[in-house]
Fold this sequence. Notes:
- The structure is a single chain.
- About 30% of the residues lie in helices and about 25% in strands.
- The protein has helices spanning about 10-20, 50-60, 70-75, 80-85, 95-100, 105-110, 125-135, 160-170, 240-260, 290-295, 305-315, 350-355, 390-400; strands at about 1-5, 25-30, 40-45, 65-70, 90, 120-125, 140-145, 155, 180-185, 190-200, 205, 210, 215, 220-225, 230, 265-275, 280-285, 325-335, 360, 365-370, 370-375, 380-385.
- A five-stranded parallel beta sheet has the order 3-2-1-4-5, with helices on both faces. Strands 12-15-18-22-19 form a five-stranded antiparallel beta sheet.
- Helix 7 packs antiparallel against helix 8.
- The protein contains 13 helices and 22 strands.
- The protein has four domains: about 1-95, Rossmann fold, CATH 3.40.50; about 125-180, 2-Layer Sandwich (Dna Ligase, domain 1); about 190-320, D-amino Acid Aminotransferase, Chain A, domain 1 (2-Layer Sandwich); about 325-400, Alpha-Beta Complex (Glycinamide Ribonucleotide Synthetase, Chain A, domain 4), CATH 3.90.600.10.
Amino acid sequence: MKVLVVGGGGREHAICWKLAQSPKVSQLFCAPGNAGIAQAASCVPVKATDVDGMVAWAKENHMDFVMVAPDDPLALGMVDAMEAAGIPAFGPRANAAVIEASKIFSKHLMEKYHIPTARYRDFTELAPAEEYIRRQGAPIVVKADGLALGKGVVVAQTVDEALAAVREMMAGGKFGASGSKVVIEECMTGPEVTVLAFCDGKHVVPMPSSQDHKRAYDGNQGPNTGGMGAISPSPNYTPEVARQCMEEIFLPTVAALQAEGRPFQGVLYFGLMLTPNGPKVVEYNARFGDPECQAVLSLLESDLMDILMACRSGNLDQLDIRWKDGAACCLVLASGGYPGSYQKGLPITGLDEAGRTAVVFHAGTAEQDGQIVTNGGRVLGVTAVGPSLSDAIDLAYESAKPIHFDAMHFRTDIGRV
């Protein structure tokens, strides 16, 4: 099969790395890809958000299957457009991807179908939002309604911080149209866990749990980022918690989307908080998380291509999906200044040496005059597998030691907080 993966980050590198292992995949392409992906697939210079351009390229080049990985093209309806052109595609259609594209939609869905989540109110005007914050007090959580590169959430510790956040979003245009509407919700407490799940519209098969590390600095300090590292599985996700999540969250969510005429086929991301009152949904995503994907797919033994096709055809319940014993850790190496402004085009060294003991997934890289250089905020994801979580963490850090680029920044406590 000729397969096209849409996207160009660390998540897409992990997906291409796994698909390249499938005997069913004869040719693998990625658009737009990056310097690391180019080692596993042929990169295509089409922007991930260019729906018409992507469909045209897929048709002209006779793709047999397209895997749409990022949030933006899913929300824009790229899967719908591929299917309309007669090209089988993996990922939710736009009317199901809205579960991530609109936090207001997802909160209303959970409320309607009694899926446990934080108490909330949503707002389309600034003054009532400010009044609600003052009345509720802090800590309190302010979320942009739409897609914001994983950075549209502020956990405000003071009323002033919450007011500043809601003003930035609604009046300051920080996230454009995505922040013109907001959700303000109670601040839940407890360990955070991510569970990614394959879905075929009716059936749901959870993957091993994972834990992202969103804050920029050690000790979970600093601004939110797209993710500074991930481990899998999470030590907090016990078999009892897994059973409760399946019964109270996973199955009800898939059933709710189907009941609303929005059957979800793809990867559904459950961001969970294990509160003193049981697990609750923090957020949904309509695709693999990044960097959770890198850690979780490193543990997958089964053929990913088989799973993608089963999700699309509604036969997921007929597969026996197998996972490795042990654990995985993905350590993100970021540009200095991230998630703020940062420099691009800095030469990267030590990749070959690091790759001897771990898989180095490229997130923000490019090739320049035969040299791999930085080309984004999150640059690399050094991902190691070990018999235990502590082994995987130690190996990821040890493997990252040879890698260098100017102003390289990473957390030293991934999996340890």
